[in-house]
Write a structure and sequence with these properties.
It is a single chain. By secondary structure, the chain is α+β, with helices and mostly antiparallel strands. 41% of the residues lie in helices and 13% in strands. The chain has a four-stranded mixed sheet with strand order 2-1-3-4, sandwiched between helices. Strand 1, helix 1 and strand 2 form a beta-alpha-beta unit. Helix 2 crosses helix 5. The longest helix is centred in the first third of the chain and has 13 residues.
């Protein structure tokens, strides 16, 4: 990651993992812009762009432990859905999106794994 790149962190205030991630960024002295994922849900276009940059399987963008994911029975439904349908579904509600979601240039991270963040954001 280049030092002049803006880091955007999509997060949910009540999420303890998000709180840990923001605390970690603060401790590392990494500047970031916070975006509330529930109020400012990413669009299908944003999600598609981030998914393509990330190199991750699309399933990693879903909050698989969330209530909404379980209510919609997505564990069984996702395998039958196209990528476009999955992206459109993710864009309907920020609570379906895995968080925190970090976007920094070509770096896209889902969830908070300190070792991965250290490697990808601090190099």
């Amino acid at each position: 990651m280049k030092s002049n790149e803006t880091i955007t962190v999509l997060c949910y205030k009540k999420c303890t993992t998000c709180q840990k991630a923001l605390k970690w960024l603060d401790e590392q002295g990494i500047a970031y812009a916070e975006r509330p994922i529930k109020e400012e849900n990413p669009s299908a276009e944003e999600l598609k762009s981030w998914y393509e940059k990330s190199g991750l399987p699309l399933k990693r963008f879903f909050n698989t432990s969330g209530m909404l994911y379980k209510e919609l029975a997505l564990k069984d439904r996702l395998p039958q859905m196209t990528e476009e349908e999955q992206l459109a579904l993710l864009a309907t509600d920020g609570m379906l999106v895995k968080r925190p979601l970090v976007v920094a240039g070509d770096v896209v991270l889902t969830g908070f794994k300190e070792a991965e963040w250290r490697e990808r954001l601090l190099g």
